[in-house]
UniProtKB/TrEMBL annotation:
Annotated keywords: Membrane, Transmembrane, Transmembrane helix
Domain Ice-binding protein C-terminal intervals: 254-278
Pfam families from the UniProt entry: PEP-CTERM
Region (Disordered): 121-146
Protein name: Ice-binding protein C-terminal domain-containing protein
TM annotation in the entry: 258-275
Signal peptide positions (record): none
Amino acid sequence: MRQVGLNKNLSSEFISASLLVSFDARRRSESQTLKIKKTDMKNKQFLTALTALAASAVFAATADAQDVISVNFDDGNNTISGSTGAVNAGNWNALNFGASGAPNTLSDLVFDDGTASTADLSLQNESAGTSGGFAQGGDSMDSTSTGDANNLFSMRNRNGGALFTLSEIPYAQYDVYIYCGLIDITLELNPPSDPVGSNALSFLGNNDGSSFVEATSTVAGNYAVFRGLSGSSFTMESGSGGDNGFIYGMQVVAVPEPSTFALIAGALGLTSVMLRRRR
């Protein structure tokens, strides 16, 4: 009987010990699970924060829609309401030098988002010219205008030697797109220096085509590009090369600064490295 009682006591103690071990193991397991959940939550919060940082860098590079200034040399009878151009953009500024009494200057040209910039434009040695549709066998790029037939680049400057100056350019670095139908163009930065470039290019004839084509010495096109400029102003002069030279539009396009790309790459790289460390 005593042996039986002893066995009962041992059995009870064994059961109690087993329960304690089981409870302790479960508690440790729950604790570890809780720690894992907390770690996962922290990782998610950390990822969210770093993602926000990376997104803010991307936003800084893309949210500013003030990266294009576009000008249409017009006859005063047409308005661009859509977006167009080799660099597709809206809110084209119109210099109506063909209209009676129209000024030959524009101040505070608007960006492609419609807000005012500091840039000013002046045009010299121009003639009234004629609308391409009447004198030149069709407007320069009617068919490339998005939803706005017969109203883009309809006025051409006919003087060889005509020039315009763009000043107070708000970009540290930029490209200049010149829409033209002429033989020779020269772009010079101000203050006066050696010309940035002088190109004898091949341009399309009376009907300048149904798409935007960059002109080269061997490819007939309807616009030329001067890339990687950094002056606060420039002057462009056209030479007709013995024929009527035409300038009928311009775009100044900002070139993103290297620091912007470095910020984006750094933020994304930091996200990747820190996540690997926390796993």
